Amino acid sequence: MGDGDRRWLVEFCAALKAERERAGLTQRQLAQRLQLSEPTISALFNARTKKAPSWERVRAILTACRSETHPRPMPEDGPVASRLWHEDQDEYLHRWRARHAALEIASQRTTQEQGASRPAASEAAHPEGVPSMSVHFVGRDREMGELRERLTTAGRGPQLLTAVRGWPGVGKTTVAAQLAVDRTFIESAFPDGVLWASVPDGSHVTAALASWIRRLGLPRPELGATSGELTSILRSALRDRRVLLIVDDVWNPAHVVPFNVGGPGCAILITTRLPQVAHALAARPADIYPLGLLSEEAALELLRRLAPEVVHHHRDESRALVGTLERLPLAVRVAGQMLSEDWANGWGIGDMLAQLREGSALLAAGAPVDRAADNHTIPTVRALLRMSTDRLDRQTRLRFAFLGAFASQPAAFDVEAMADVWGVDDAVPAIRVLVARGLLEPSGDGWFTMHALLVLHAKALLREGK
């Protein structure tokens, strides 16, 4: 990096630090939200880094700051701010992304001129498109090992699909992302790298396919090329390559079809909260991998990493809390962030523990920053759950809500009990829909369970009459 670029980086980091201060966040609070170490954040804000921070990290920082404030007008406190900041942060992000790309190209050119070999694709710090990784990834050693084995086996013959499914917030995307950045595994099983796409509503399928073509270094397709034409290009290019294809957050099996482009050396992994999607895509029931909840010890360790002082001084209450939250990673992460903030502010945590056990505070809280939406806003936990219930017809949604009023803990219902709650002779059709939507889970012998977080959501829907 030349002197001019170095000066630009120092100015940029100073402006980024000012944005944190305007949001009213301490360095420690921001580090906790981003699940990074405080020294890492400090080095970034004070420009003690050898290269520009990644696009994903800049976006995560601004997302965390935006959750505290609305976009601000361009400050008038100096030439640096005038040059680097724009009243529309989306425009700013666009400019930063372009600038960062230019710096990366300059850095690669310098490396090549010095005769150094370019790092292999599998050595990249973060494959493009993969969500930012959580440093609080615990309790999944067995699952990671089983998925590696499945994918490696798939890569030895005709391409097979593995569908990871589970409750909302159980960590499907996180597990998939951990696989994508596992250098040892990827270098061994898929030396040609990882291609990642997220298709929650199917609106970006063509753009994602074009992105895969670009990442593979293929010629740019013609403007207006259809998804079918892009799929053909990818299928031809991947015929003799060994690539791991990951399609995340699938709600419609039709959205996966264009991405099923790998040859015999490739494997494809999809994540979905919907059992009906998993069954539609999997060639065999064995190709569906149900991702379960954390163990009690893993859930407590996750809470400890997020709120160490709280768990140290209130271990019994903390253990009871993860039990109340039924060891769901999303719920534990949000609870840990809230407890950590209260502890850092010097407030007593008794009230917060009670509110978290009751559930209202948890539903209203912002999700972890790695769940940020495409518009760089952080949804609430409840908004993430509504993605499932908003797709139900009103009658089925009300039946789901009524279950919340009658749920114990753990929430378990048999067919007869649900028929009584709903006042119907045959509850099976509605049960089928709720199971297909991942809102009920069969537990055997005609019984079905509902996770505690979904019970809280059901009660909230009932209060609203929805």
Structure, described:
By secondary structure, the chain is of the alpha/beta class. The chain folds into four domains: 3-118, 434 Repressor (Amino-terminal Domain), CATH 1.10.260; 123-290, P-loop containing nucleotide triphosphate hydrolases (Rossmann fold, 3-Layer(aba) Sandwich); 296-369, no CATH class; 381-464, Arc Repressor Mutant, subunit A, CATH 1.10.10.10. Helix content is 53%, strand content 8%. The protein contains 23 helices and eight strands. The protein has helices spanning 3-22, 27-34, 38-45, 55-66, 79-84, 89-113, 141-154, 172-180, 183-189, 205-215, 227-237, 275-281, 296-306, 308-313, 315-324, 329-344, 350-358, 360-364, 381-389, 394-406, 415-422, 428-436, 452-464, and strands spanning 161-165, 194-198, 244-248, 267-272, 288-290, 411-414, 441-444, 447-450. The strands form two sheets. Strands 2-3-4-1-5 form a five-stranded parallel β-sheet, sandwiched between helices. Strands 6-8-7 form a three-stranded antiparallel β-sheet. The protein is globular, with a radius of gyration of 24 Å. Residues 69-125 have low confidence and may be disordered.
